[in-house]
Amino acid sequence: MNTTAVSPPETAARSRTRHLLHRSLTWLIAVGALWALARLTGADRLPLLTGLLVPIMTFTPYAAVVSVILAVVALVLRRWKAFGVTLGVVSAFAVAVLPRAIGDTTPVTGGPVLRVLTANLRLGRADPRVLAGLVRRTHADVLSMQEFTPQAGAALDRAGLGRLLPHRITTPLGSALGSALYARWPLHALPMFQVHLIGLAIPHAEMDVPGGRRVEMMAVHLARPMNPSGVGQWNRAFVLLPAGRHRGPVRILAGDFNATLDHTSLRRLVGEGYVDAAYRTGNGLVPTFRQWWVPPITLDHVLADARCAVRRTRVYDLPGSDHRAVLAELRLP
Could you tell me the superkingdom of the organism this chain comes from (predicted)? Predict the structure, then answer.
């Protein structure tokens, strides 16, 4: 019978590797627990933590996946205390994240159907023919556009968008500052926020809908909260955005919020009389923003008046843009 002896150096190396693995697992579980606690308590709204936590909270769904992997590793290593803690972390993330993939009940309404499409044009570079074709294919009644430039407006006219949605209110500024609303029915401009306060244009209008109804629309684009200036503008915009209504014209906010439902500010706004259309249909984790250096995330939303029924939502690729277009089909009350 042959036996293979393990030399003391090999034993020491294995011991060091195992110790490093256990120590790394402990640190990762601790980070996950703090992350989950911050998410559940809304710590990103605290002034001293906003600049740090707002960017981090964006990636909470990925932290949830990592927590499941850590639980499996702890189980394989028979680290029972670590496994128990990780199960708690997994549960906390599940409470925060999973409802977006499940959906929610929607009220029964008898009003007309309204199809809302929103698209970030990436400095006006999105393919105008694809976007006009998407409006035609989805029968969109209103289109909210962000990063709308004068050149993009001219290209969209050449692509036939004006024939599909003949009414418009536009703020065609350079770079990422401009936004626009195009609609099938007449639009009546309402006062806009001052661009210097929030960094970007947010067109605001009431739209006449057949049957004598009016719907208030905002083409939302919030600053990127990646530096102190951006965080300040982002916070101011969330304070200024109006709450939903319990009576009177339906109010809909559609656009690039540069926020996910893991941000307290967006959840607070939704709780003030809105519903996130993708959340309600179980598509709340479908990513709408992609760049090579950042994992796919969900930054674009249609926030509908909570009195509306959400019939369906869908996300479409938009060549030339780093965002995907979002369609929400609503039935008005």
Answer: Bacteria
